[in-house]
Amino acid sequence: MVRSQDIPFHRIPGHSPLFLDYIGLSPAAERFYATPPVKPKLEIFARNQSSKKYFPRKEMALILERQNALYGAGAALEEQVADLARPDSVAVVTGQQVGVFGGPLYTIYKALTAVALAEELQKSGIRAVPVFWMETEDHDLAEATRVFHPGPSPGTVEVARALFGDRAPSPRPVGSLTLPLKIRDVNTDYLGSIPESRFRANVRALLEEAYAPGVTMTLAFARLLRSILPGLLLFDPADPEAKRLAAPVFLKALENSDTIVAALRERAGGLARAGYPVQVHLREDATLLFVTEGERLALERESDRFRLRGSATSFTAEDLRHLMEGAPERFSPNVLLRPVVQDALFPTAAYVAGPSEIAYFAQVGPLYALIDRPMPVIWPRNSFTLLDPETAAELERLGIDPGDCLAGGERMREKTPPSSQELERLDELERRLDRDLRKVRAEIGAVEAGLERAAENARRRILHNMGRVRARTLRLSPVAQAVDRLLPRCLPEGKLQERGPGILLPLARYGSPFLERLRRETRPENFAHRVLYLQEEARD
Q1: Positive or negative CA dihedral for 419, 423, 428, 431?
Q2: Which long-range contacts (CB under 8 A, 24 or more apart) does 18-25 make?
Q3: If you ran DSSP here, which 8-state letter would residue 233 be given?
Q4: Among 75, 162, 294, 430, which one is least packed by beta carbons within 10 Å?
Q5: Residues 6+ apart with CB under 8 A from 357
């Protein structure tokens, strides 16, 4: 029997109050966004957005056609590109950094939510196309190269050193890095950590076809995502032609940087006054732009000039205008400006975001004046925990609900109080010791009063040590050991499962039927965390 279970996010520790209020449609949170994530409101926004004529639709269609042909597009994607070029279309956009081996599971969850949300709009008569914005310009190599190994000691391994040695590349757009010959060893090591399974050979083929020597991180990620989700348009914002189209936004951000930063800092103050965390802290000299000059460095204001942080290089405003005209590909937006660039290029009706992104989108609102458009609907992505049959059976045997598992080890232990015969014997022994030691203390006191205090101290020390024996017994009891064994399966490294393992691990065990199950279970209007009970397909 196919089973799933929804758990409200407020039962899962670690989520920000802004995210919880946003998915709960609280007016306190909604005032920081343009449109709430409600289907009728989204449809109204999408119809208004599709009536606009000033998006560079044809130019973007040519870019998408060229890029996706490189990634291995089929006829269905060519039709989507044609749809996006039409004046009545909208985009449902999501995105993620181009992490090694596809990044964490939530990358796929975001993509599937975007596909499902676009399909929902299509059913309402709105021409909607899902687009995945590959964050190829991010320069956080450490984050992009984290890979979760299941193995005997499961955990995250950073493979930057294994790929590039001790001399890791300087801060450069991660997507532009070329995979060296050592990627073969990294592939082999990762595949060796995956237990032998029915579909492991399929995963090996996927991995080795995508992540090969001489391929950029962008192309490797795109090939893998294309193999897993063939119906999704992929976009690389580092494309020089796309940069040319984005240059007017860069120029406005530069020319109005002091006003923009003041507005963003005021918005941050409003969030703080409302009791919400501020996700991105801006310096007063920020411009929201990066410039690539060998390295990707933040551009900052300095009196009447601009300089690259950590560098001696500086520019006048006129220098930067000329550079934007001649080489716009050297500029890239920071995390707050990126959504505005995205929505200048695409007729975005909705952006599918995770909890952290939803929090920083609350800061972005003032920037939309740059492009004279409203912020799109920020739509929460679907969220899943995958339970393998063994874990599900053990939780059921112990009487532990998956929600208690996601709440952490303390909650799990509260739900599984031990009642073993060994503990009952310890209780009886402690009672007998206390009774007998009190009797000895009284008899010693009758012989010599000064010894009574020593006897009482001895009694307390013995009972204290009995407490330590009890604690050790609890820690080593079969129930406690089961809890310790189960907890990393629900919360690997203390985090929701979707933030650790990647898509290749469940694919190796469950194959393509797992992807079909994920597609069926992805429901855009479900703002709860869904636990999926997985089953292996019966062999022929």
Answers
A1: negative
A2: 18/271, 18/276, 18/277, 18/358, 18/359, 18/362, 19/355, 19/358, 19/359, 21/276, 22/358, 22/378, 22/380, 23/380, 23/527
A3: E
A4: 75
A5: 378
Interatomic CA distance for residues 238 and 244, integer angstroms: 10
**pLDDT, tens digit, for every residue of 483-501?**
778 888 889 999 999 999 9
Pairwise CA distance, residues 258 & 320, whole Å: 16
Q: How many other CB atoms sit within 10 Å of the CB of residue 393? A: 12
Contact between 115 and 516 (Cβ < 8 Å) = no
The span from the CA of 232 to the CA of 225, in Å, is 9
User: Where in 164-229 does DSSP place strands (E)?
Assistant: none
The structure tokens listed for 230 are 């063939």
Indicate the SS3 state at residue 19: helix
Here the tokens at position 365 are 């609102």
DSSP 69-98: HHHT--HHHHHHHHHHHSTTEEEEEEEEE-
pLDDT in tens, 24-67: 999 999 999 999 999 999 999 999 987 776 899 999 999 999 99
- In terms of residues, how long is the chain? 540
